[in-house]
Amino acid sequence: MAVVKRWQECTEEDILQANIEKYDSEHIVNFYKDFEEPRYAYIEYNVIFKAVINMLEKTVNRNLQAVDLCGGAGKAAFVMKSCSPDCRVTLVDLSEKMLDIAREKIAKNNIEGIDVVLADAFSFLESEGEYDLIVFSSAVHHFKEPLNLLQSAAARLSENGLIITIADPTTITKSRRYQFFRFLAANSQNKKEIIKQMFSGNKNSNPDADFDMAEYQTYTGINDRELARGVTNIGLSPLVHLRYPAGEPYMVKIMPYLGLCWAFSMVLGKSENRVPEKMIGELKQEIKEEMPFKFKYM
User: Total structural domains in the chain?
Assistant: First the structure.
């Protein structure tokens, strides 16, 4: 019988293998193959990406080179192309099946300027090349040591390049308030599953046995304040750090008033290339003006 590792015992290699297995599984692949993103869900991608690209285009005198790293079926890559059609985007993921879904979308919509690469994040970042924008879309929580990942990404940035992390969970997701609201907002089938788990009589001797290793940091949620402090020790500067309520449109209207800005995003630049305060202020103002729901800067 295989020994199930506890949360603290998992290595980066364990988590990588769990992601390979999960995102090559028929259940997950079929979900993403059939999934149509609601029109107004996760609109923060469009708002934040557009604002950052607008700022980059003031300092980079050529078509932008961008990477959607750990990009799965390419959500962030497609948003970047919609924000900047001339941008050259490299979509990187460790699942060939997820990349196949992206290739189908590229062909179906006749999109040019997206290169698809099969690789894990660290292997890709060890290769040569510089990028003006590196995006981690709901990806940082898949790593045991996010700072190591961000440090590797920083080494691949161009002179004025930026990193965006977006749609990762904070520790608020483990609060009773969030769990209760999630239950209220769930559909009937999900409610049944949640109730079933709550009243399950199966008491496993390992309390961590059923956690999803592929989604590693969701076990506790990410302490984004601590992460923001940590990036300053690896040569990065947080230009923007915000918390917001991700998900369905009707949910994001309510969540802020319940103290449930549970997702976070950061825009990071290299500390050695100081961005003028005026540009940072303009970036924040554009995001604030375009975001259709309440959020807060940290």
Answer: 1
Domain of 142, in residue numbers: 7-172+210-297
pLDDT-derived band at 38, boundaries 50, 70, 90: low
User: Which CATH number is 240's domain given?
Assistant: 3.40.50.150
Is residue 181 one of the residues assigned to a domain? no
Which pLDDT belongs to residue 1?
Answer: 40
Residue 203 in any domain: the answer is no
Average the pLDDT over 147-166 and give the result: 97
Residue 178 domain flag: no
Q: Which of 42, 81, 51, 54 is nearest to 288 (CA)?
A: 51
